[in-house]
Q: What sequence folds into this?
């Protein structure tokens, strides 16, 4: 199923997307609560899908998990991106947090902050945790994932690299757009075989496939779970391929008015318009 959060004239709701329709769920609570209750929601989901639904084009899609408990992202996790970054291939997984306040809707403006103009894009598949867990083995991870969505680990490059710890440069408001909905894990046979692309103003900048992840999704989430309890709704950004603006010669950063499109096979497409912070 495709679980979306959206706004219409009536308010904000959760819904199931099927073809060009969205079918409203009556659930009233947080995204985390809905994900945690998902197994018990299946008859509600079936009932919603039997209704007529409304045109997807008539609603505004919102971030499916607007305020997750945590957002983690892995650095240097595609071989071609490691090479363009001029870094050594890491023997350990490199994790940083993105502030939960950086989460942004799939079609909302992405801000170029007042303090700096070196905003860059990183197309990434995002895994959404479905079940609480700690010290999980790699073979148990699939059962703990609720689903996947498209994300962009938007980065303020100057702020990222002016200290050894990247989190601040990764945490600006609006810099974690996700969506357009969550495709549940049962629809994604293997998350390690999906084409991933990013375009700026229609020009393809990144084009790869998640089969090229250095540390795969199971390894990533298993490792995170050694340190912390993973909870429903937690977001894991799984790494970006080559083609970021900072690796171009000369470097090119996103500008006011640019249109940033991120697409992943089977998961959909998000589109953010770059806008100067006022
Ligand atoms: Zn990234």
A:
């Amino acid at each position: 199923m495709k679980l979306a959060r959206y706004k219409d004239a009536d308010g904000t709701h959760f819904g199931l997307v099927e073809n060009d329709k969205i079918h409203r769920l009556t659930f009233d609570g947080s995204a985390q609560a809905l994900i945690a209750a998902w197994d018990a929601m299946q008859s509600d989901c079936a009932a919603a899908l039997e209704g007529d639904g409304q045109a997807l084009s008539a609603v505004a899609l919102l971030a499916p998990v607007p305020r997750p408990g945590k957002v983690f992202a892995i650095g240097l996790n595609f071989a071609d991106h490691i090479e363009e970054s001029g870094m050594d291939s890491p023997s350990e997984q490199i994790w940083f947090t993105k502030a939960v306040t950086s989460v942004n809707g799939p079609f909302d403006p992405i801000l170029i902050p007042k303090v700096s103009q070196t905003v860059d894009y990183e197309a990434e598949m995002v895994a959404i945790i479905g079940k609480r867990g700690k010290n999980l083995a790699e073979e148990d991870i699939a059962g703990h994932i609720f689903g996947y969505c498209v994300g962009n680990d938007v980065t303020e490059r100057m702020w990222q690299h002016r200290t050894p710890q990247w989190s601040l440069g990764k945490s600006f408001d609006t810099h974690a757009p996700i969506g357009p909905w969550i495709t549940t894990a049962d629809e994604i046979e293997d998350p390690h075989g999906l084409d991933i692309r990013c375009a700026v103003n229609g020009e393809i900048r990144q084009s790869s496939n998640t089969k090229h992840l250095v540390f795969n999704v199971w390894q990533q989430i298993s490792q995170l779970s050694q340190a912390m309890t993973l909870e429903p709704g937690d977001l894991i950004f799984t790494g970006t391929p080559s083609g970021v603006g900072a690796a171009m010669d000369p470097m090119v950063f996103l500008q006011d008015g640019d249109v940033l499109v991120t697409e992943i096979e089977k998961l959909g497409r998000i589109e953010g318009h770059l806008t100067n912070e006022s």
